[in-house]
Design goal:
nine-stranded antiparallel β-sheet
Length: 379
């Protein structure tokens, strides 16, 4: 399918107010779409379903599913961007932002309250966030999605819509978990600093400690349901205009005493988006952030899709190709660097990890830097 026809189909689905998701996985070329045939709201009950899942931060709330069996699937293998600068750059977008002095003061006070909670041993780390409204002179979600594709080739990029839930877009650098048959891989991602032309940078103890919290939590969460686990060295990775610390983790799934749902409940939300201990940090967030995160810092992606793996890559060897296997595949990502579109306003969600060494003013500036990821595509 040509790029033009692919996006015409999506636009028609959106015009008809029918659910859809269009996405591209990190470092891939293909852009995929699922178009649900009706406007029914489907729920992922035990994560044994097949489709695209969209889960909220608060795991007590319902996860929305676009089921494979209730949808049409499309693939665009040759996306070409023809972007235009609509609003005059990031400075122009900044002027349309509704952020106020009191918003900054509230966030700084929130961070200070989080630091006090750590000093009082309520938790070791808490991730605190804010929502920044940006007025849009024109709204074209597919144009914004194309801009995300163009600007963030190493991220999981998506545009998701359901008439009963709303319209969300994002470009997240963080995988929650990927599975292929019995094999899995995930990552611990934390620590942030602005990219200044090189990834050869020094990291402070605050960022190193924050990253270790996430790594330890994931390994502990995976312990009962995995074996042969491998942990990489910590490395610096670039995501948009930011740098992060990353550790890759892989191994074999073994669900003798638990299920995929149990594993997801243990993993989500990770200390990278919530805190540690998880429940204490989560309750502090729900009580003090003063807004509803909804699907920000939730997770999303392909759930239990069937993919055929060809054993022999030589296309001429038809006999060996017959021995290809079909495996169940899931690719789930943490919903970071995202926005929700409401009428003529983009709600941009940003946050940061707070530890005992955090500086409230510096944490505010980190959210300002992170907001540029989404503002860049609203130019």
């Amino acid at each position: 399918m040509t790029s033009e026809d692919f996006f015409k189909n999506i636009q028609q689905q959106f015009n008809n107010q029918l659910p859809f998701v269009v996405y591209r996985k990190p470092k891939e070329v293909e852009v995929k779409a699922l178009h649900q045939k009706t406007d029914q709201l489907h729920i992922a009950k035990d994560y044994s379903e097949k489709g695209f899942v969209f889960a909220p931060f608060d795991a007590t709330k319902l996860s929305v599913l676009i089921p494979v069996e209730e949808s049409l699937s499309f693939v665009c293998s040759s996306f070409k961007s023809s972007l235009r600068n609509k609003n005059g750059g990031v400075e122009s977008v900044q002027k349309m932002s509704s952020i106020t002095k009191s918003d900054k003061e509230f966030h700084i006070e929130l961070v200070q309250k989080g630091i006090e909670g750590i000093n009082e041993n309520q938790f070791q780390k808490v991730v605190l966030s804010r929502c920044e409204p940006v007025k849009l002179p024109e709204v074209d979600p597919l144009d914004t999605f194309k801009s995300l594709l163009h600007n963030y080739p190493t991220a999981f990029v998506y545009c998701w819509y359901h008439p009963e839930i709303g319209l969300w877009l994002g470009a997240t650098p963080e995988s929650l978990i990927s599975t292929e048959g019995s094999r899995f891989k995930t990552m611990a991602l934390a620590g942030t600093q602005k990219f200044e032309g090189t990834d050869d940078v020094l990291w402070q103890n605050k960022e190193k400690e924050e990253q270790q919290f996430v790594t330890d939590f994931i390994l502990q969460s995976l312990e009962e349901a995995t074996e042969n686990v491998r942990v990489s060295e910590v490395k610096t990775i670039k995501a948009g205009n930011l740098l992060h610390l990353q550790t890759n983790i892989s191994g074999i799934l073994n669900f003798k005493s638990s299920s995929f749902k149990d594993l997801l409940n243990k993993l989500h939300p990770t200390p990278a988006v919530c805190g540690m201990p998880k429940e204490e940090a989560k309750q502090f967030i729900l009580k003090n952030e003063n807004y509803n995160r909804e699907f920000y810092t939730g997770f999303l992606g392909e759930l239990n899709l069937l993919e055929k793996t060809i054993r022999n890559t030589n296309r001429r060897n038809v006999e060996n190709n017959a021995y290809g296997s079909v495996k169940k595949v899931s690719n789930l990502f943490v919903n970071l660097r995202c926005m929700q579109i409401l009428d003529d306003t983009a709600l941009i969600y940003i946050g940061g990890g707070i530890t005992k060494d955090s500086n409230p003013e510096a944490e505010w500036q980190e959210t300002v830097a992170k907001s540029q990821v989404m503002k860049k595509v609203l130019q």
